[in-house]
Amino acid sequence: MFNGSRKYSPLPSSPSSSRASSSSSSSSSLLPAAPRRSPRALQRHSSLLSQYSSLLESYTEGEIRQLIAALVERYSQAMNSGGHELPLFPRAGSRRKRARARHKPCALKELEVSVSELGLGYESDETVLFRYCSGTCEAAVRSYDLSLKSMRSRRRIKKEKVRARPCCRPLAYDDDVSFLDAYNRYYTVNELSAKECGCV
């Protein structure tokens, strides 16, 4: 009746199953029998797991350390070249938001913070206007950046920390900032806030 390659073994017969089959034979003419699922997907999954586990067991401890070191080096290179750590299965909405945020041009932004939040070691409740540079520099990519990226991909430059794309940085700084700390001591900090931003 069926010429496929699958072979189904009949279920072992028992008195209860023979009664059930005789009682269901009258209703089987009304309802079609549901096809039985093949455990092929489960077998494929378990075979992949066994292949990977046997592969990892074949490595020596030194080889595993070399593999981990190579993965860490690739990750650090991706982060140094402006890469971003992404989830395994990103949602489409978050991917679009990241794309929009990634292509905002380099611009000057500002934020009102306390002197203690600046991280310079001063204790003061005075607030200052901190201006900073934010955005991408995709339009400012030069021949230098393209050549540097090519040298890194060819592993001609391996361990140096270099960036293969321009970075949004201050081109000029605002006036010096003066404040009193928590002990009524007077301080002046220079080159604290950005005045002009650009791709360098």
UniProtKB/TrEMBL annotation:
The keyword Lipid metabolism does not apply. SUPFAM superfamilies: Cystine-knot cytokines. It comes from the Eukaryota. Residues 1-42 are annotated as: Disordered. Coiled coil: none annotated. It is found in: Secreted. Pfam families: TGF_beta. One of its GO terms (cellular component) is extracellular region. GO terms for molecular function: glial cell-derived neurotrophic factor receptor binding; growth factor activity; receptor tyrosine kinase binding. Residues 9-36 have a biased composition (Low complexity). Residues 95-200 form the TGF-beta family profile domain. InterPro entries: Cystine-knot_cytokine (IPR029034), GDNF_fam (IPR043401), TGF-b_C (IPR001839). Keywords: Disulfide bond, Growth factor, Secreted, Signal. One of its GO terms (biological process) is glial cell-derived neurotrophic factor receptor signaling pathway. Growth factor that supports the survival of sympathetic neurons in culture. May regulate the development and maintenance of the CNS. Involved in the development of the neural crest. Might control the size of non-neuronal cell population such as haemopoietic cells. Acts by binding to its coreceptor, GFRA2, leading to autophosphorylation and activation of the RET receptor. Heparan sulfate-binding is required for signaling. Homodimer; disulfide-linked. Interacts with GFRA2 coreceptor and RET: forms a 2:2:2 ternary complex composed of NRTN ligand, GFRA2 and RET receptor. Also forms a 4:4:4 tetrameric complex composed of 4 copies of NRTN ligand, GFRA2 and RET receptor, which prevents endocytosis of RET. Belongs to the TGF-beta family. GDNF subfamily. This is Neurturin. It comes from Pelecanoides urinatrix (Common diving petrel). The gene is Nrtn.
